Structures
1.
Amino acid sequence: MLYLSTRGHPDRKHFCEILLEGLAPDGGLYLPERYPRVDPATLARWRGLPYHELAFEILSLYIDDIPAADRRAVCAKTYTPEVFGTREIVPLKKLEDGLYLEALSNGPTLAFKDMAMQLLGNLFEYELGRRGEQLNILGATSGDTGSAAEYAMRGKKGVRVFMTSPHGRMSPFQQAQMFSLQDANIHNLALEGVFDDCQDIVKAVSNDLEFKRKYRIGTVNSINWARLVAQVVYYFAGYFQATKHDSQKVSFAVPSGNFGNICAGHVARMMGLPVERLVLATNENDVLDEFFRTGVYRVRAGADTHETSSPSMDISKASNFERFVFDLLGRDAARTKTLFGDELARNGRIDLSRDPAFKQARERFGFISGKSTHSDRLATIRSTWERLGVMVDTHTADGLKVARENLEAGVPMIVLETALPVKFAAAIVEALGREPERPARFEGLERLPRRVTVLPPDVGQVKSYIAAHCG
Ligand SMILES: *Cc1c(COP(=O)(O)O)cnc(C)c1O
């Protein structure tokens, strides 16, 4: 399997080449040349597999430059009950008839990002070891991505992590999670600014090509194809748990921000998984809901990005969205390049409202969308707790609210649980008047010693820190 750029760059690459890269050289995103189709006999065979073997089967369709035995070993090492808490890895919970919750948040940092990041950590260690290279990961986080990256990379040979976050702005639990890590290869940099400052500094460092090369700077952001393909696996796993045989269809409801999670659902559907609808849920930051309702994709300015109680979905533009538009336009790379390279930069928007392709988003690709606000979240958390005795976090509540608006008779709806409530305790207390449940292994987390360096939001100081700690 070879990979191409959504903007038409002539090079074709193998999996391990794009594994350690970010964007394609022309600014596009990498996608496989085609989506492998899974025939009914294969689907039937996969139904009985444990999660790590299902992961091996799916990844094997996309990776041709790691020997099978090593692929299998990486999957087996990643998806264990010890790391993910259950034998099923992503157990399905029935909420009521036709409505399910797929638990993706029982990994080390209690958010779904562990599902992909844990695999990425093992793939990075494998590939860097094979090449005899080192990588210094520089990132910006408002919470979930940074902790997932740190827990995936801690103690890994050949990898260091420098993670910037806005000083004092993550939830207390998220801060404790990240800053209590004592591993020598993990560096927490709390910058005295907001998340956008962190992101700007990461961009500025990455744009300094000489610095980037000298210090072997890389990223683990959500546009990484390996993260996406890892997420494809749990769509299959959820489907098998919700159905008895492969003639049935299901729908998925996905709390969305950067369009990474639901893009994996799109890939699963393109591979032939019987998915009726992909239901995209946003919070008040409704860039994507607006697109699927109107055909206009309008990125927001930083100042117009709301700070909400589902903060991991507070985005002004969706970094993975270009992948879907490329498919929507029949894989027209020239057009994708014009839209995302020129028009978006010039006008801050892409207008497909009068394009016949836009209708295909719903009719051919199965997408529908909806939006959920702070009061919707509180109401959903409350009613789910009172009626069903199930506590959901704010992001999952957004997904559940929009899922309920789009139920169809005879089609099971699977809501993806993207985080556990304990990560966002303040909103739970507001909704329920009580503290969220806390898994036993996190008792006393806030009292552990911390390892974090506070710096002004200054590119020079971040660079000096990296240079001084790069060995
Ligand atoms: C990252 C995240 C999301 C958004 O996922 P995308 O892949 O960016 O769409 C939703 N919920 C939680 C809890 C997250 O951490």
Note: The mean pLDDT is 95.
2.
Amino acid sequence: MAQRKTLARPFTRPNNAAELHCGSVSLVALAKRHGTPLYVYSADQIRERFCLFQAALEDREHLICYAVKANSTLGILKILAAQGAGFDIVSGGELKRVLAAAPEAVSRIVFSGVGKTAAEIDLALDEGILQFNVESEGELELLAKRAAKRKIRARFALRVNPDVFAETHPYISTGLREHKFGVDIRRARELYLSVKNNKWLEAYGISVHIGSQIRSATPFGAAIARVVELVNVMKKDGIVLKAIDAGGGLGIDYHAEVFNAQEKVNEYTSALKKSLNDFNGRLILEPGRFIIAQAGALLTRVLYVKKNGNKTFVITDAAMNDLIRPALYQAHHEIVPVLPRKGQVKPVDVVGPICETGDFFARDRKLSPVETGDLLALLDAGAYGMSQSSNYNTRPRPAEVLVDGSKVSVIRRRETIEDLFATEK
Ligand SMILES: *Cc1c(COP(=O)(O)O)cnc(C)c1O
């Protein structure tokens, strides 16, 4: 553990090996055995990141609920459940995934999302999840009805919108009044009071989630300070909340080779603790990206190198349907040749085969020479990679392998073309 503390990723060239490895396993060997495009994950790195949160909160009651939407593959959920993780879900489908991977973790599930259906609420009530993160007055009413009907007491937390600005991409910022998420913090007290005497609703906690890929600890601290203020006011109303859920959103560095994850987590949790002040109930966190992003890479093979005028296009067998982040959020992913060739570094566009100009991984990226058949690794692809993949252009989705020490397991087989039309008539 100590050695990797400041290295951002588990993808290295151990003992000056020519080939890039995941831990002790060569990516050349993995591509040969499992084909490309291929998602590769390091189990050690996933555990390591998760444990940083556990360790930083050792001194207080806490629950780390991994945000399933970042990467919902069963094999990944299993690793985290084995470490004692809880789960933050946003759909009935994600609930079924957690139940399939780790049924014993059901009592550690929090259910977020602005559009829960009655069927999803029923399923979650019947399974006995920990907490519903309620995002509107209408949802609170529906939850009360479904709970009464089933005679199951529902623990809920209002997700409040603290009106805190966090510097990130506009598509993944969620904590401002203009966003669709949560209820206005100024209305929350009224809502808690309105259901105070409802015997099927237990006001268990309160939650916030201000966005994703937030690099500074300051906005997290500011959001929690506002929440704690409200919690203290409500104590006088006789509403004593047991938990504060600070959401997820802690960002990583998609550029740097060195990244002190431990320092980041400590900075983040210190800011939260400072704002929590004298609240000594349970602190719930919902990190997704921070745990899984850097543990994964998308391995792809170069199909063609093509010149148009003075531009060079490197066309890979992976595309935006496999990893949409560059197209969707103008996101940066480091691209590393698995077996680098000697020669001058030149700017190229790395693109996929899909019929969209938005189908690119990088533009004017300086790469050492690449040729047809070469392997490239797109780094930090563990979060919002496979979980946002699609079958656009009738492309089967990639396989996923998990490297755990010297052991490699296929945690998802490659889709076949037949899989893609199996549901059609
Ligand atoms: C997406 C999401 C998360 C996880 O965000 P990360 O940036 O991946 O940590 C946590 N909580 C909620 C409510 C979310 O919507």
Note: The domain at 11-41+294-421 is CATH 2.40.37.10 (Lyase, Ornithine Decarboxylase; Chain A, domain 1).
